[in-house]
Amino acid sequence: MRPVFGKYASGNGVVPRMLQDLIRQHTLEKAILQRQSEAATQRAVKAAESLSADLVEVANSGAAKAFQQQQRIGVEVEKVLSLTNKLSDQNTEWATMINSADQALRVLGDFQTYFEVLQQDMSKLTSSLQHLGQQTAPQQQQQL
Question: Are 15 and 8 in contact (CB under 8 A)?
Answer without folding.
Answer: yes
